[in-house]
Amino acid sequence: MTQQTERAGLRIAPELVRFIEADALPDSGLEAERFWQGLADIYGRFAPENERLLARRDELQQRIDQWHGEAEHEAPFGPDYHAFLKDIGYLVEEPAPFTIAPTHVDAEIAELAGPQLVVPVLNARFLLNAANARWGSLYDALYGTDALGDLPAGADYDPQRGARVISWAKQFLDNAVPLKSGSWTDFAGGTPELADPTQLVGRRDGNWLLRHHGLHIEVVIDDTHPIGRNDPAHIADIELEAALSTIVDLEDSVAAVDGADKQASYANWLGLMKGDLEAVFDKGGRTITRRLEADRIYNTPDGGTLTLHGRSLLLVRNVGHLMRTPAITMPDGQHGFEGILDAVVTSLIASHDLKHEGAIHNSRTGSIYIVKPKMHGPEEAAFTNRLFDAVEDLLDLPRHTIKVGVMDEERRTSANLAACIAEVKDRIFFINTGFLDRTGDEIHTSMQAGPMVPKGEMKNTPWIKAYEDRNVQIGLACGFRGKAQIGKGMWAAPDRMADMLEQKSGHPMSGANTAWVPSPTAAVLHATHYHQINVSERQEERAHEAIASLEDLLTVPLATGRNFAPDDITRELDNNAQGILGYVVRWVDQGIGCSKVPDINDIGLMEDRATLRISAQSLGNWLLHGICTEADVDAALLRMAAKVDAQNANDPSYRPMAEAPQDSLAFQAARALVMEAAEQPNGYTEPLLHRFRAEVKARRQQPA
Asked: Residues in domain Malate synthase C-terminal (predicted)?
């Protein structure tokens, strides 16, 4: 084990100490001694409470397990179940009506509606791609994907396909920014006369800047471009304002298990906040250096200038309350809670954005945006609020500079959502549903109640519709319109853009003013939905709805009275086992926390720990209730290990599992996630993943 460095009674990974003292603290206005003492004081104050909150989770789970196990309760569980949940404090009283009151919130959060990216913090190239995805080419997004229903046939430009792209894009312009007469298809150049002249808001290098639903469209004019020279108006491209915001993720999409991993994470976040992050890589035999894009400056019709953000507004997702990190050791010898470390260090780093005077800025209003995942109920939200108070005091920041995004992805949070929001009402900037994590917690909370429906049927159960509706309805009732984001989850299939174009319009139609997409290209295509749908109007319409039933939300998705056919059981086992192994093998062996993983049908899906949680809990539940046996699970894991090996055959760094599963730590981790599913805290996968990944790293550091 690496010798740790002592600071203010804490023992800290030396690489983290060096980073904070040499990189993060300079120009922050905070001296090292005060920082370390402040960190120690925050740990001394908040670590015991953090521990009590986790104990409370365990206590509630034990009480619920006991309730399901002690007596015969007929599903769907009725008033006695709800009374029991209130009696143990799982359900709390609804707060009196209130309105959230965050201040200094950037327009990307408070006023605009558009796509949101989530990107792993450990990959600098991906980070820069995501940050620069504020703008993207509609022509490229349509041409290079299956958005039109098929893929390009070869490497050379196909004029017929190009014509289809241009036709689609100009029809989009006709709908979003119609001309006073005629179609954009026939537009022959000059100043476009729009049906609504106020939509023409600027010019840049001969290009036209248009605005619709608050979002910008830049029509690129270039008579020397291969496309532009053949266009009647010399339109070479149509660029859309796309990813308005991006979550820089330290949580579910990264594999960070020690001090070195944390230091690398924080270093990339610092590069973004200082504006100097670079990624150098080889592409087609050329060395490419990628940096953050500059702002865009336009001349306005009245003779002034208009400056638009060239980058996504960057938010940072900290880890939740559960995990401890070996990057920091407390005076009592225990590892420090990772979420506390993240709160202090990511805020310290983001404070550089508030202080520096360079050309690259993130927040224009002086706010720091932290997404806080996996909180359970209002008492944990209140804890986060007090923790952020303490961090602001340490960093000499005005109260509520640090904003919080509440991930509505745990059952106790969704059942008490208004009460959770009330605890952070002066700093909240977003709520967001997460189907996969929420389903994993749904299964684990009611693990003892009986076998659950198969994973693929979960979206057809009553609690899901109530969950998605309540997220919007409660957010609107608490005053989110014009002040904060209501978000929806990820489109997981980055290669299926035609399906996304057809289906993901449902998110803005729901009244959500943001939704997650898996790539910059997907952000461009999803942006078209926010031109089709006026989210502000949809929110006004939905604000008059009654809030969906709590009883529906608490309906446990049991497969009551159902006899599964052997083939159906095998199919479900294989599907879940393949998904678990395909993700875990990269996490444990290669430290890849998020990537496009082929599913059992070889369709690439963007996977992170949320996918793993639902799959492991699904199999663990069936195993517990005798739908399958341990031998059935082992057989499925072995079958699917061979399939996953074949899917990764072209990866030179891949370590096969099937031939010697007993020697593969990745295979053993996948098996443990299923066999020990019922015992994992709230069904989380982090404890086991971290343990096996740390063992892989330790083995590689041992002398040969």
From this structure: 569-658
Per the CATH hierarchy, to which homologous superfamily does domain 566-701 belong? Malate synthase, domain III (1.20.1220.12)
Q: List, as residue ranges, the binding site for glyoxylate.
A: 317, 409, 434-437
Contact 444, 684 (CB under 8 A): no
CA-derived radius of gyration, the chain: 26
* Burial track 422-438 (b if 16+ CB lie within 10 A, e otherwise): bbbbebbbbbbbbbbbb
How many CA atoms, within 13 angstroms, populate the side-chain half-sphere of residue 617?
30
Displacement of CA 557 from its chain's centroid (Å): 25
Tokens (6 digits) for 10: 């804490």
* Token reading at 141: 């997004």
Helical segments of 157-252, H only: 159-176
Mind listing the pLDDT tens digit for each residue in 454-499? 999 999 999 999 999 999 999 999 999 999 999 999 999 999 999 9
Range list of H helices, 497-606: 497-503, 506-509, 520-532, 535-542, 550-553, 566-590
Where exactly are the structural domains of the chain?
Answer: 137-241, 566-701
Copy the structure tokens of residue 304: 């002034």
What residues form the annotated binding site for acetyl-CoA? Answer: 118, 125-126, 253, 290, 518
Instruction: Clarify whether 568 is annotated catalytic.
Output: no
- Residue 485's φ and ψ, nearest 5 degrees, are -90, 145
Catalytic residue among 311, 608, 609, 632: 608
CA–CA gap between residue 667 and residue 584 (Å, rounded): 8
Annotated binding site for Mg(2+): 409, 437
Beta bridge partners of 282: 287
Active-site residue flag, 45: no
Q: Alpha-carbon torsion 676, 680, 683, 686, what sign?
A: negative
Contact between residue 125 and residue 279 where contact means Cβ atoms under 8 Å apart? yes
Please tell me the pTM assigned to this model.
0.97
- Of 51, 122, 67, 63, which Cα lies nearest the Cα of 88? 63
Q: Cα separations (Å) of 302 from 203, 210, 295, 298, 532?
A: 11, 15, 20, 11, 29
- Is the domain spanning 137-241 CATH 3.90.1300.10? The answer is no
Using DSSP, state whether 231 is helix, strand or coil: coil
Catalytic annotation, pick one of 317, 411, 613, 671? 317
